[in-house]
Specification:
The complex is a heterotrimer of chains A (326), B (481) and C (332). Chain A contains 14 helices and 2 strands; from the N terminus they run ααααααββαααααααα. Chain A has helices at residues 5-21, 28-53, 61-76, 83-107, 112-131, 141-148, 156-173, 175-185, 187-192, 197-223, 233-243, 255-274, 279-297, 304-312, and strands spanning 150-151, 154-155. A two-stranded antiparallel ribbon of chain A has the order 1-2. With 481 residues, chain B is of the alpha/beta class. Chain B has 2 domains: 3-238, 3-Layer(aba) Sandwich (Rossmann fold); 257-479, 3-Layer(aba) Sandwich (Rossmann fold), CATH 3.40.50. In chain B, helix 6 (174-189) links the parallel strand 9 (162-166) and strand 10 (193-197). A two-stranded antiparallel ribbon of chain C has the order 1-2. Helix content of chain C is 75%, strand content 1%. Chain C starts with a helix and ends with a helix. Chain C has helices at residues 2-6, 16-19, 28-47, 55-80, 88-106, 108-131, 137-155, 165-172, 180-198, 200-210, 212-217, 222-248, 255-259, 261-271, 283-302, 307-331, and strands at 174-175, 178-179. Chain C is globular, with a radius of gyration of 20 Å. In chain C, helix 4 crosses helix 14, helix 4 runs antiparallel to helix 15 and helix 15 (283-302) runs antiparallel to helix 16 (307-331). The longest helix of chain C is centred in the last third of the chain and has 27 residues, at 222-248. Chain C is mainly alpha-helical and 332 residues long. Chain C has 16 helices and 2 strands. Chain C has a single domain (27-38, 51-331), classed as Orthogonal Bundle (ABC transporter involved in vitamin B12 uptake, BtuC). The chains are: A mainly alpha (326), B alpha/beta (481), C mainly alpha (332). Chains in contact: A-B, A-C, B-C. The interface between A and C is large, with 56 and 51 residues. Chain C: Keywords: Cell membrane, Membrane, Transmembrane, Transmembrane helix.
């Protein structure tokens, strides 16, 4: 818990700052509009969290989101009857992509950085190959409702976000979640405790893929169909997770904090907008915040190479007074 | 003969434990000086002080009459101390020559002088009579013995005055030991002082000129090798008052056979026959590299037997072993036993969760059963003492009620008070009907706890001893003198 | 282990240059693949009525791959040192603008100086953030790349500055049949190869990437090595930016990200057999990786297959190649 506190503090400060600049934010519709905007990234960050906490990366989610939106538009093509089957298909497709990522990473032992980078290229290429270069077709009003419609006073995407948050929190409290974190922390100890490490990590990738599908459904509704809809989302999701205090390399950090990281990022963008700093500097501020947060918050972040070494050669002794015996 | 190393009155404490006190040690040029002692006697600490890794609390070190500055390994290196650690410090993807000159490559006209590097390395290799590999071979391609030669060449290339070897034969096969002997003798002929740390008495009689015995952090004796016998050395090393308290042995005769192996073997073990019965503690002794850890991992299914018969059926994976009711408390808690950043609760429940089973009873009851005090389930295990960490590992296994528990060095890195608590727990589990196999390199513990003892040597069972065997008897079987 | 001692190791006696592609070289698989692909391409071109080894085609391949090739050389250095650099793509864009604007205002030489200064500074910052602030290289360089992107988005809407005719020769001229850009790539690759093989810095890059602890125990100042590798990597990206500015005749804020130089350069390095964790591999393999991708491209162009298929095949090639490497390493 200790590690997750700063992000909530930062988020609170940002929210207050937004409210000062724009009192409408304090009214329910204003606040809900903010949550609605943040929902897709928050859901994507929740999915990315599973992968990162298990000690891996998922760089394919941005491409996956684009692919899903483009596929949805092409398949639905304005036909209301196709909405639900296509939504089901998107979820299955997302999970399937995750399954492939996980299986290649764990069973073929390709570093997840490369696996998901390859998947990113494959998805981006395949989708445009199929659509012939530009997205075609159209989403139905019914489909777009999830991203931009409301149920009474509450946007659908907020409800979906709440459902996702409830689900991931329950999942992290369940056996699977605890086992997943332990696996990321120490795969060797987990394996010797009977944990199926490859299976556990693969499920994390499947969850990430499925969350990208949900994110795509919301973004398709919210932002419409374009070939750029998912661009850079993988890095935003990783940024959000890391801002939440989740350690690259695995085993530490909470999913709620990762989601809070996504909200922090979105609040930051909102604030910059309010103060008239155009979208152009958004990424620069994101970069500064990212580095500053990590440098200040996690000075003991283990180096990537150090981890790789530790898994290759577990026999290296570290000077440890309690073990200093002759 | 000139004195190369003089350590005077070395003392060192770590929080909670005095590891060394008033140790004097002198090593002369061209002398092979053996340093022996049980686990925990202080050998490694003494070596690390010489290497500049630890700073002593008291005492002085002189190398060829000049006081050694402490603080950084580089200082020791510059003073002519070269250490060959048990874990070799080589880069596998670089060549022999590149490793030998790592960090101090010769430079000519601004460029690395590969020719000098390779020529010097080749000369040093030739001077050691080593022709099975050359300066351009990748270290990755070399056997462990050959890599040790590289370490020695590295020591020679810095013009070391004293070479310290820490258990150099631990990772070597029998025939490779001969090669090492040859190297050590060559170092001696060059007038280099060799400090040779080993458990194996035979090596000491083969190689050393003098031997110093450490016990419980103090020097017991320094003797020329020809004025001492194996029996003397064993007595000096282990002879102690039996002040440690061990729980009483099993009162009842052992029960049913819960695990049996006939002819078990894999690439590290051969011809393993053993039976574990309900209610008994079987101790496993052996030198480093004798196959102790390999044995428990084979029984558990982590590095399975590839031949032989086993009842219940031979586990082919960890999950097989757990399903068959076997648990393993590993030697290295930090790398193999615990997820250090997770809570006590998450660690204690890891095995149960991996099996999708419910733990028997609540976590608090479980922690009470292993007497974890204070029982705080939400605390991260990395903040616990070694003893409490071990109790968490034990709790992890109790959740699935195994019938056979394997312990690999159950009290390593555990302070004295916690040791007794763990000993009692182990005995309690046996009394409760479990079969226990316990590997330990601490002979008093092994003898104090075990109902019978198996001694391993070179991957085979070298002998079986009854309860109350003497340390000398165990040592003799283990060292095969 | 016991087996190994009885089989004496083969003595390495091949000349040093050839040794780089010897059986033990991590670069060998990529060149075998390159040869196989070239033969395949040659046949495909023939059946399609084209000529793979025509001057136009080979020159095109070299010209198109030069910029990625140069960035990948720098990326090789940081990956060998156990780090990585995600900021190169936006740095390439930034540098192309710096070059074009400075050239328009002050001339070519000051522009080259400015480019080198900006690149070195970015590399220095990357290296210091990683070593001093102890930020994971992935996050540190991602953060720096976002900062550069912000600056670009803020200041530029489209191409800016202009490159004088004289400097555009760098982009299009040829010496005999060989494009100048390819010569530049070859020169930079050779310089990096030389650095790795003959200088203490090169040796220490391998040591730090191989095992930082062993390097430290041997007296290597590991932080300095990582920083130096990052500066060199950024300088390579700077050279690539110059080249692209020469080719475009102006600076462009999207030239780097459109080219995907960040992830593609990492992929080319890894395809070339360099270990992602560092300490093993080299520039020769990276060049092979870049050429492999370029030949693949030219096949697609010839067959007039939709250019997006290229990405699919690239992705498959990366993953398949790495899966094969992983198998090979396990087999040892």
């Amino acid at each position: 818990m200790r590690r997750t506190l700063p992000i909530f503090g930062v988020l609170a400060v940002l929210l207050v700052a937004i409210a000062v600049a724009n009192p409408y934010f304090l009214e329910l519709p204003g606040f809900l509009a903010f949550v609605k905007r943040a929902a897709p990234l928050a859901i994507l960050a929740a999915g990315q969290y599973f992968v990162i906490v298990s000690g891996e990366f998922d760089l394919s989610v941005g491409s996956l989101v684009t692919a899903e939106v483009v596929i949805a538009a092409r398949l639905i093509d304005g036909d209301p009857g196709a909405t639900w089957p296509v939504i089901a298909l998107l979820l299955v497709l997302g999970a399937l992509v995750g399954l492939v990522n996980g299986a290649v990473t764990t069973f073929l032992r390709v570093p997840s950085f490369i696996t998901t980078l390859g998947m990113m290229l494959i998805l981006a290429g395949a989708v445009f190959l199929w659509t012939g270069g530009a997205p075609r077709g159209a989403l139905t009003e019914q489909f777009r409702t999830f991203g931009r419609g409301d149920l009474g006073p509450v946007p659908w995407s907020v409800l979906i976000l709440l459902a996702v948050v409830a689900a991931v929190v329950l999942l992290m409290r369940a056996d699977f979640g605890r086992t997943l974190v332990a696996t990321g922390d120490n795969p060797g100890a987990a394996a010797l405790s009977g944990v199926r490490v490859p299976l556990t990590k693969t499920i994390a990738f499947v969850l990430s893929g499925a969350s990208a599908a949900v994110c795509a459904i919301l973004l398709g509704g919210f932002a419409g169909v374009s070939a750029q809809v998912g661009q850079g989302l993988e890095f935003q999701a990783i940024t959000a997770v890391v801002l939440g205090g989740v350690v690259l390399g695995g085993g530490r950090g909470s999913v709620v904090a990762a989601i809070a990281g996504a909200f922090t990022l979105e609040a930051l963008f909102t604030l910059l907008n309010l103060y008239g700093i155009s979208g152009a500097l958004e990424s620069a501020v994101q970069g500064v915040i990212l580095i500053a947060a990590i440098a200040l918050g996690a000075l003991n972040l283990p180096a990537w190479a150090a981890r790789a070494r530790a898994t290759n050669a577990t026999t290296h002794t570290t000077p440890d007074p309690t073990h200093a015996k002759g | 003969m000139g004195l190369v190393l003089r350590m005077t009155g070395i003392g060192k404490s770590f929080p909670g434990a005095r590891v060394l006190s008033g140790v004097d040690l002198e090593v002369a040029a061209g002398e092979v000086h053996a340093l022996i002692g049980e686990n925990g006697a202080g050998k490694s600490t003494l070596m690390k002080i010489l290497a500049g890794v630890h700073t002593p609390d008291e005492g002085t070190i002189e190398i060829e009459g000049r006081a050694l500055a402490f603080g950084h390994p580089l200082d020791a290196q510059r003073a002519g101390v070269s250490i060959i650690y048990q874990e070799l410090t080589l880069l596998p993807e670089r060549t022999v020559a590149e490793n030998v000159f790592l960090g101090r490559e010769p430079v000519r006209r601004g460029l690395v002088d590969r020719e000098t590097m390779e020529r010097t390395t080749a000369e040093l290799l030739a001077s050691l009579g080593e022709d099975s590999f050359g300066p351009r071979d990748l270290v990755r391609r070399l056997s462990v013995a050959q890599q040790q030669v590289v370490e020695i060449v590295k020591a020679l290339s810095v013009d070391a005055r004293i070479v310290v070897m820490d258990e150099p034969t631990a990772a070597l096969a029998e025939h490779e030991v001969e090669l090492l002997y040859r190297l050590v003798r060559q170092l001696r002929e060059r007038g280099i002082a060799v400090l040779y740390i080993s458990h194996r008495l035979r090596e000491i009689f083969d190689l050393a000129d003098r031997v110093t015995v450490l016990k419980d952090g103090a020097k017991v004796a320094t003797e020329p090798i020809d004025r001492i016998t194996t029996a003397d050395l064993v007595r000096l090393m282990v002879g102690r008052e039996l002040t440690d308290y061990y729980p009483p042995r099993a009162q009842r005769p052992p029960g049913d056979v819960l695990l049996a192996v006939r002819g078990g073997g894999n690439d590290r073990l051969d011809g393993i026959d053993l039976e574990l019965r309900a209610g008994e503690i079987v101790g496993v002794a052996g030198l480093q590299g004798a196959g102790r850890t390999e044995l428990v991992k084979a029984l558990f299914g982590a590095e399975p037997f590839t031949r032989g018969e086993m009842t219940p059926r031979r586990p082919r994976s960890v999950r097989d072993g757990i399903a068959a009711g076997i648990g393993l408390v590993t030697e290295d808690r930090k790398s193999e036993g615990l997820a250090l950043h997770q809570s006590v609760r998450d660690n204690a429940l890891l095995v149960a969760r991996a099996r999708k089973g419910r733990a028997g009873g609540t976590v608090l009851q479980l922690l009470e059963r292993v007497r974890l005090a204070p029982p705080r389930p939400e605390q991260e295990v990395r903040y616990l003492s070694g003893g409490n960490q071990q109790k968490v590992v034990l709790a992890k296994w109790l959740t699935v009620a195994p019938r056979v528990l394997l312990f690999d060095e159950p009290t390593r890195g555990v302070d004295v008070g916690a040791k007794a608590a763990i000993h009692e727990l182990v005995r309690e589990l046996a009394d409760g009907g479990m079969a226990v196999l316990m590997v330990s390199s601490e002979l008093p513990e092994l003898i104090g706890m075990s109902d019978r003892i198996l001694v391993l040597r070179d991957g085979r069972i070298a002998g079986r001893l009854p309860a109350g065997a003497t340390e000398e008897a165990v040592m003799e079987l283990a060292a095969g003198s | 282990m016991t087996q190994e001692l009885h089989t004496p190791l083969p003595r390495t006696s091949a000349p040093r240059g050839l040794r780089d592609l010897g059986a033990d070289s991590p670069a060998r698989p990529v060149y075998l693949a390159l040869v196989a692909l070239t033969v395949l391409a040659w046949i495909l071109f023939l059946t399609d009525g084209g000529q793979f080894f025509s001057q136009a085609n080979t020159v095109g391949i070299l010209q198109r791959s030069a910029a990625l090739g140069i960035v990948a050389v720098g990326q090789t250095l940081v990956i060998l040192a156990g780090s990585l650099d995600l900021s190169v793509a936006f740095l390439v864009s930034l540098v192309s603008l710096v070059a074009a604007e400075t050239m328009a205002g002050y001339g070519v030489l000051p522009a080259v100086g400015a480019v080198l200064a900006v690149s070195a500074l970015v590399g220095l910052v990357n290296g210091l953030v990683i070593t001093r602030l102890k930020v994971h290289a992935f996050i540190a360089t991602l953060g720096i790349s976002l900062i550069i992107k912000g600056v670009l988005d803020q200041r530029y809407d489209g191409p800016a500055g202009s490159v004088p005719e004289s400097f555009q020769h760098l982009g299009y001229d040829r010496v005999g049949p060989v494009p100048v850009s390819a010569l530049l790539w070859a020169a930079i690759a050779f310089a990096a190869w030389f650095l790795l093989r003959r200088t203490t810095l090169g040796y220490r890059i391998y040591a730090v990437g191989g095992d930082p602890e062993v390097a430290r125990l041997s007296g290597v100042r590991t932080d300095r090595v990582v920083v130096a590798a990052h500066v060199l990597c950024a300088l390579c990206a700077g050279m690539a930016g110059l080249l692209l500015a020469a080719r475009l005749g102006a600076g462009a804020p999207t030239v780097g990200s459109d080219g995907g130089y960040d992830l593609e350069s990492i992929a080319a390095v890894v395809l070339g057999g360099t270990a992602l964790a560092g300490g093993r591999g080299g520039v020769a393999g990276t060049a092979g990786g870049v050429l492999l991708l370029a030949v693949l491209d030219s096949v697609f162009n010839q067959l007039e297959i939709n250019s997006f298929a290229k990405d699919v095949v690239r992705g498959l090639v990366f993953v398949a190649a790495l899966a094969i490497y992983a198998r090979r390493r396990l087999a040892r």
